[in-house]
């Protein structure tokens, strides 16, 4: 909204503050800020007693608030808005759709580098005149403060060697001996590079030659100039001098005298200067042209054709069919038309290989956005989109919040993946669905890609709501792998199993090692084993905060809770009965890695799971080592299943398939098919050999495993869709899960029962299920009860959500239930 500003008029701004409150707050605009303030700009505002926040301007107007005195905006951070009108519309829609507060959305949407930190500082009060009132501790602390302009609590603690600094400062504040204030600073700091260049009066050829002659009596200084000219040939092109040379290049050169360099700077032969550079590096990658096969070109043409009539198209392409090449072609077309492109990937692990391929095609036109990047790196992508530097971004689910305003295409790769759904904190959004809404507002097209589409997406495509294109042949005539079911029950009866490994799998692994081919082993459980148990009394290590057993991690000699992070050391004997017969039960990736190293001591084995990939570049290092042939066997969780392309992998082993299939959840069969098919797709991606996949199962006759053997996604869909319709599950309904939490089980149960009764009055018993105790009943010392709401597609979701939110607020307004929290998860997985 644009205002004709009037100096005599008082202006107010409604601000979105990144805190869980249900409304915007109104602040007064200072007169010196009136003409500069714009909707979408960030500002600093006081909030509460002693806090300041980064807020975003949502609206500028003239109406003061009715119920409170408007505080002044403290500072304007942006001369031009970093938040677009589309984003503000998106934040409001997400708050309404996902039953949360707009402040929750802003808190997740903005990278922390665009938020302000508020750090309390302490300063000596020069007007203090009563030293006789001070204790020895207070005198010592004041003496330190007098030496500095201001210090933080932490800095003071280090200097005076005390742990009770906050209480001492509190007493000094009461005596008016110190002043406490908040130092506000923006987190984002541009990356600066110090460079060196010849002064302007030495830029042309004659001046350079004259300089070299003049320095004949100072050979070390002459050598510095000659070395600079070898990197920056100013004598051939004076304009090259303007860009200069990174000072670190000369600093690290053994032939350059650093004292001579400093002398030349002092004598104004050279000058130093700083420039802002991107953090992503300017790797000189050879530009690669992507050529499509006839089948890929047809798929690409079909997608374009479908886009003429449909805004959303589903590309069903089997593993190894070359969907990425199709994406690249479509991205190039969109960029050439002047539009922006967003390419979503479900996990960071996927970006490692794909980003390298995309970089070779798109170079520095492409931005990368995911949580493993630092705050500053993410801010640079954000600002790069606003400035027009990046027209194309590859990112994970949080990339949907980026400030695009001219999107032409959004690609959601592996659209079936559960990683697109955020579970905590609010908003609990699904990036695929949010992407569709963004595309609707910006009149962009959406391409959903998957070898194993979600049942919902495939159903919408079959119903004609989405366009539909198939790519059912592997790239380069590579064959689909040979899938074999290994009966572990029979192997155990015949005593052929060795720990967790069937004889068939061990034999195939041995043959692969002899052929110098690579293998991947999949177990979707990290850690050494799910838990420890005493053989005598059946004691099990359990989390004191959550209703779960502690997972044993052998390398760190500890038991961990994967819900709250609680850790216990491994007991030397049973804490309950003192027995030394404490054994591991079950197995995770760490145990598989350990057992493999014993069976194949010469093999090079690597593990890829959450525990081994916490560091920023850990994914890339593991994948690079495997891709370079430095690893023989890669053991991993689901992160190895998605999109990775290794030409030398000829064997994939899959453990614990029965646990995936029998998980108590209505999507279990679909998920098992997707997971096993995706992992299987890592094998045999070259035309000259057929890969092999071994699935260990105690029941080879399970229907879903037979569908996997036949690569029969269509058959799976036809069976699952009947079940979904019979029991009114998506895509025939919308699901909303409400989780009631409280530290006391009886209060949590009472609140959940009351909520169900209130919801049932209008929605009816068929639509409101529960309350039920979830699989994990207690997390972080909070007892949980869940309520599942099923809404038919014919019901207005907006009206139903307003009613649900009213009932939640009504419940929480009861004084006896004030400590109860209710978490809403819309379109829960």
TrEMBL record:
One of its GO terms (molecular function) is ATP hydrolysis activity. It is an enzyme of class 5 (isomerase). GO terms for cellular component: primosome complex. This is Replication restart protein PriA. Component of the replication restart primosome. Keywords: ATP-binding, Coiled coil, DNA replication, DNA-binding, Helicase, Hydrolase, Isomerase, Metal-binding, Nucleotide-binding, Primosome, Zinc. The gene is priA. PANTHER family: PRIMOSOMAL PROTEIN N. Zn(2+) 2 binds at residues 543, 546, 561, 564. Residues 304-471 form the Helicase ATP-binding domain. Belongs to the helicase family. PriA subfamily.
